[in-house]
Please model this.
Amino acid sequence: MAALADTLGRQETAAPFAIELRGISKAFGPVQANKDINIAVPKGTIHGIIGENGAGKSTLMSILYGFYKADSGQILVGGHPTPIPDSQSAIRAGIGMVFQHFKLVQNFTVLENIVLGAEEGALLNTSLGKARQVLKSLAQEYGLNVDPDALIEDLSVGHQQRVEILKALYRQADILILDEPTGVLTPDEADHLFRILRGLRDQGKTIILITHKLREIMEATDNVSVMRRGTMVATVKTSETSPEQLAELMVGRKVLLEVQKTPPVPGKVVLSVENLRVRDEDGVERLRGVSLEIRAGEILGIAGVAGNGQSELLAALGGMVKASGVALLNGAPLPLAGPGADGQSRREAGVAHVPEDRHHHGLILDFAAWENVAFGYHNDPKYQKSALFMDNAALRADTERKMATYDVRPPIPTLEAKNFSGGNQQKIVVAREVEQNPDLLLIGQPTRGVDIGAIEFIHKQLVALRDAGKAILLVSVELDEIMSLSDRIAVMFDGQIMGMRDPARTDERELGLLMAGMTGENAGAMKKEAH
Amino acid sequence: MDRLPRWADLTLVPLVSLLFAAIISALVLLAIGQSPTEALKVMVDGALGSPYGWGYTLYYATSFIFTGLAVTVAFHAGLFNIGGEGQAQLGGLGVALVCLSLPWPHWTVALLAATCGAALFGAAWAAIPAYLQAKRGSHIVITTIMFNYIAAALLVFVLVDVLRPTGQMDPASARFPVGAQLPALNDIPGFNLIFQRPVPANVTLLIALAMAVVVWALLWRTRLGYQIRAFGKSEAAAKYAGINPVRITIIAMLISGGLAGMMSINNVMGEAERLLQNSSEGAGFIGIAVALMGRNHPFGVVLAALLFGFLYQGGAELGLWTSIPIEMRIVVQGLVILFTGALDMMVRMLLERVFGLFRSAKAVRAG
Amino acid sequence: MDYATLLQVLDTTVRLATPLLLACLAGLYSERAGIFDIGLEGKMLSAAMSAGAVAALTGSAWAGLLAGIGASMLFALLHGIAAITFRGNQLISGVALNFLASGLTVLIAQALFRQGGRTPPLTGEARFNPVTLPGAEALREVPLIGPLYFEVISGHSVLVYIAFLIVPLTWWVLFRTRFGLRLRAVGENPAAVDTAGVSVIGLRFAAVAITGVLCGLAGAYMATALQAGFGREMTAGRGYIALAALIFAKWRPVAAMWACLLFGFFQALALRPDVVQAVVQVKVPVPLLDALPYILTVLVLAGFVGKAIPPRAGGQPYVKER
Model:
């Protein structure tokens, strides 16, 4: 706390903090999500909390909103110790939360959503009448204009978010927490949001902005706290820091995992993609014209903050979602929609895929290991005994072999996938895909939730596959993984590729800025603006 | 909370559920002033105490194996086929049309053709809900319920206005030709040493057992079964692996409907020897209880079908020899479905707690 | 078909639509709160038996009604425990409870009365008798409207009028009260209700309890008004027709009334095939009339007659996410 007080200066904050967390810790099993977190947010400020995915930001905010109970520590609201066992207590304490995934009833009107849970009496008319009045004045005060009678499903995402903010204000929240609020917004909408937030601050509200985007922190906040691996590493005034410093604080000086590899010997082009576009179910364009090439014998790493289109890139190339554009595999067209744009056709064409999410996609958790080894390759002739039957014995023998080669523990083919540790599950998936000897391997988050030993092993396998003259598309949110494995690095931001870099001639700082959507020039501009 | 060991999940959960169902059934009997032990004795004597009783128990079990397998196959694809009843009735229509169409020279030929007819009609009746689920997202539970009622109405129409011989009063088809009558167990050499009096259990029992093996092989030995199970476990993962959801939904339901339809060779061809109204007598619904109790495994289904065969024959005996109404068996059936299908989490939590106690006791001793 | 026959058919329509309507509104509360209920049939049946039995024992139709509601609520509570507390499969629970009701009603009726699972015939005060509405006799001679009022609208039991009054009441509760707002919200997005600090479990149990009450009314009407006593399986699939009507009406109360009247009309026609034949000049098989509600519902489900979008959170147990 002393460090913080030094930074902010005692005299400036003579008034009690809007919110103060003291020594908050929270563990999920063996994982320490929050370690002794101290943070104090002065009244009437916008306070950013920044950190990589999994740094513990969301856990901390969930504790603040009564979703989790902290293992230890204290919450003070307005200077008073305030236990927050549930959301209702949080609301009573004047805390409002705007979730990343909105909690709105789609076929209700704006008014109905706003009064839900905060009605005036048993009859709706009075509540709705009052809300209409309040809404009108809120619109005037903060520029939060929304048609009160519109259905939520007819509103744009940006307007839906405004409804969430209005919900909190209607409950007279003084402290507003926004969890990754711009993840779903267009840049224009994001700018508008920040104007609204500044307006709220100027009216005396306190705002906590959780994000992993540096640009937003620089643009919108007064103070910023940086989290890394469950701890709060620093709290600084935004005007006294720079994106470079924050990037460094976020990432930390991690020990780079040494990966032994020789210089690449790129061969012919295996995959070329031009103007690849993907829309999600809501019609939002998630991939906005990506073009790239991967050659035999090289690893192309895709760096980027999660949610900037990397998942869609993998899914489109893996045949899981429809896309538009042109893709060629070894010179032959790779269908992106319609017949032939499915996982089976991809595998037959020589594209293997280690998906980002092994629990939901890569494995059937209730299946035994040997059944998972055939997953996606169940039509492969080597696993068939006859036209009708699969050769389960051969499959089991194959699994045993793969388990031995990849040192999967315990080496029991009949054990269900859910009973292996994360690292061993991932080894099963990697073994399945890599041993298929594909021309192109798509691999997402190869080492997420995987222990050090398995990380090294998986990295070695990828390098070996590359040295065998195969093309690899690697997506990872771990920058050091991208840097140590890739032969070329493409940085993605907002569904587009911001730039290509040679790993030998770049550093984490430069990549971090690209990941935040800043090329060289506008990074400088941003700094000036912040000062 | 500790996870249950696999063996306990596979055996203890259904057994404890059954125990709960039995206890509550006993309480129901006590409440209506009957003796549970006396009732159990009558049931065991009547259903298992003589070859004659077994002849009925096995007859019922045969139907239940088919419908239980039908529900099982759909369950593995993540689909709840509640329409076994309608599919079975349509299967009966298929059997009747086949049996009445030709003067069959020998029952083996007739059986082969009737089996195809039954499966085809049952599958056809499942095809529409399957298509609507796969292509238009109509909830298969609701559509199959609706199809049960449409089937019932269709059969009334067919029996009254089409298949009923002129001059006959009751809504039923004509009697099947002699060449389309199946041998009962008492007609089969070897079996006739045990079953010396005529029993309804017939050669269809062997087909049912064979189908259990076929379904097992299908689900765990073929590519199709592999895809059905993978799709049922995780639609998202199936997409990743390139398994076509529309294709699997429709195929699984066709197999399910075909199996439900096939039960009709047991009751329509093997027993009634003509098509009657409501021929399936609720066996399609019992398939749900059988599949749940049998943990959706064909061998479990066979065991559960035997149990329900016992329950049905025993229940009939209760109706004959005691003042306990035959509906007692529906109560037990409801309780079994409730505990194994809807309150399984309660049973599991209970068992987990018991196992937890054992473990901590062990830990204390070890410490 | 002459006017008198039409009025007869319409009169029967109202009688037959009433239990459908009550059950349909019952299902509406539950499903609007996100709990699928295919156990309407079982709840109606248990209520019919209890109402018939208690009315026979006490000689009071009102006592029977209360007993019917009590029995139905017991089943509703069981469904709630399975579906809400233990987050079990709502569909399987409904199927199980239907069987349980089907068996238990006969068992209990037989134990009580020993009349083959029936309750004794009800007479006098043990039944809800027809009520003649004011002015019905006086207006009877007025052309067209008089007979319509006398034959179709007047002369039903009080439960019929209650059922039709519950339609606007339900609309009002659903769309004009705090409870209705929360009920609809919990069926669409329970997380929205939860983060607003309202208990999802409490709301869902309340909805399930209302379903119990309304199914109780429906069952009691079957045994003590439509017929004079309980007979085995007397609901004869009406719970499922009500479910079909609910889908057909797209979970809206007033539309539910029209759907139930339509399906009741089919049932009334099925009783008068002669009338149907006289009107359409072709012999229409009675089973086709029986099946019409189900066929229409399938068409609705398939999206051929407007898309039926069920409450979004229907059938899924609510698990608090982080």
